[in-house]
Write a structure and sequence with these properties.
This protein has 457 residues and is mainly beta. The chain is built from 3 helices and 41 strands. The protein has a domain of 118 residues. The N terminus is likely disordered.
Length: 457
């Protein structure tokens, strides 16, 4: 039975609930500047999302205090105009993915760190805006000697130099989007067991992902699962620029499971890189050689890659410079062309696989190579090459092999050549064809060659 007292009590309760609801809604609509639970309170630092003034001094003070207190920093969504930010040791800086934007104010460095034990940057946008960087830095994020570096789920764009410049760093660069860098997207030099995984790197001026050392030595970087595309060579050259993934002087590097397309030069280029593994990559529409292992290397595994569209497919070369010891197996190479990005003074363009020394080539499929399917040696530079079980079809010549005095041994066995215009196996002195098809005439005149079980169909 309802009474007047019960009715008034119910009305009061409803009013209280409505008021509470309005307060909760107001709290939800109020801009949040106090971060996430467990993070430093930024409200006392004059850090204002979407503020029009330069907030560099306040930001540096905030980051220093957070590091001293051992607290993470969470920046709410919005734009923050900053420059000359020095990242302290043990900093964890994060934001709202795609919505917390740190924008370069120009005329100095942007973000720098040096000599740190640990640094974590996540869920942030770093926008260089095409503004100048000081001469003492090489990247929008300029990081030196960070032992445990994590950059994850960030967007780095608009750098007039490298997107990320990481010198003597270890840790992880993962799941980032990096674009519009005038130099390369990621430049990692003298790394210490670095992992570069799951990044998207595109529209960069001279390179995608670069793993370099100043002197030849162990590096052991892992480059896997990245998507790299539209890489230019704005500074020109004959291969030092314009590569999707470039390994230079760095030993023990793994380049696996990457998708690389539309690079001015190579999808993957390893120069003086020993014990390199290049496996299971997609390499599409490369302007020059899709995969290169060149100059003074010892040890390269190139396997399971798919190459569609390039001037050359795979080259393992420079025995004259010490390049040797490789396997090239189970790759698909197709749709090559004779046009390259420069005038070549050697063998030129338009061939599938070229090797020189201490190398096994087996189980590959090569289709539509206008010059040669396989190329073995160059002048006197060939030693201990084994070529077996490959399918070569739709090519100019099936297999080029050097017959110059001083060339070492080659075993060419059980390969199938189909639709070869100039013949199956052809002897050359550099660029001059000096024999007919050795599958017909025999190779007895060339004691360094052993041919067996090959077939033209």
């Amino acid at each position: 039975m309802y009474t007047r007292r019960l009715l008034l009590s119910s009305i009061a309760s409803l009013g209280l609930c409505a008021a509470t609801g309005r307060l909760a809604m107001a709290a939800q609509l109020k801009p949040q500047t106090d971060g996430l639970r467990g993070t430093i309170d930024i409200s006392g630092y004059d850090i204002i999302p979407n503020g029009v003034a330069d907030q560099s001094q306040a930001m540096n003070r905030l980051l220093r205090d957070a590091a001293v207190q051992g607290l993470p920093v969470f920046l709410p969504a919005g734009d923050y105009l900053v420059a000359g930010i020095v990242l302290p040791d043990d900093l964890w800086l994060s934001g709202v993915p795609g919505r917390t934007r740190l924008i370069h104010a120009g005329a100095s460095s942007f973000m720098t760190a040096e000599g740190l034990g640990k640094l974590t940057l996540s869920d942030l946008v770093f926008d260089g805006g095409g503004k100048s960087l000081s001469d003492d830095v090489e990247g929008l994020l300029n990081l030196r000697a960070v032992k445990d570096l994590t950059i994850s789920n960030c967007t780095i764009t608009g750098s007039v130099k490298h997107g990320i410049n990481a010198e003597h760093c270890g840790g992880r660069i993962e799941d980032n989007s990096i674009s519009g860098a005038a130099f390369s997207g990621i430049y990692a030099v003298e790394s210490e067991r670095l992992a570069i995984t799951g990044n998207t790197v595109f529209d960069c001026g001279n390179g995608g992902i670069l793993v370099h050392r100043w002197e030849t030595g162990e590096d052991n970087t892992m480059v896997s699962g990245n998507r790299v595309y539209r890489i230019s060579a704005k500074d020109g050259g004959t291969g030092e620029n314009g590569n999707g993934i470039n390994i230079f002087r760095a030993a023990g590097v793994m380049v696996t499971d990457n998708h690389i397309s539309d690079c001015a030069f190579s999808a993957i280029r390893a120069n003086s890189a020993s014990n390199v593994q290049i496996s299971d990559n997609q390499c599409l529409r490369s302007g020059e050689t899709a995969i290169y292992s060149e100059f003074g290397f010892q040890g390269a595994i190139i396997s399971g890659n798919l190459i569609d569209g390039a001037a050359n497919g795979i080259i393992v070369c420079n025995f004259n410079e010490g390049g040797r010891l490789a396997t090239v197996n189970d790759n698909i190479i197709r749709n090559l062309h004779v046009d390259g990005p420069y005038i070549h003074d050697g063998a030129g363009f338009g061939f599938g696989i070229a090797v020189e020394a201490d190398t096994v080539v087996t189980g590959n499929v090569i289709e539509n190579a206008p010059k040669w399917g396989l190329m073995l040696g160059w002048g006197p530079f060939m030693r201990d090459v084994v070529v077996t079980g490959n399918l070569v079809r739709g090519v100019g010549g099936g297999c080029y092999v050097t017959v110059v005095e001083g060339a070492g041994t080659a075993l060419i066995a059980n390969n199938l050549f189909q639709d070869v215009k100039d013949g199956g196996i052809l002897g050359y002195r550099w660029n001059e064809k000096t024999t007919g098809d050795l599958m017909k005439s025999g190779s007895e005149a060339f004691k360094h060659l052993t041919l067996s079980g090959n077939r033209v169909s």
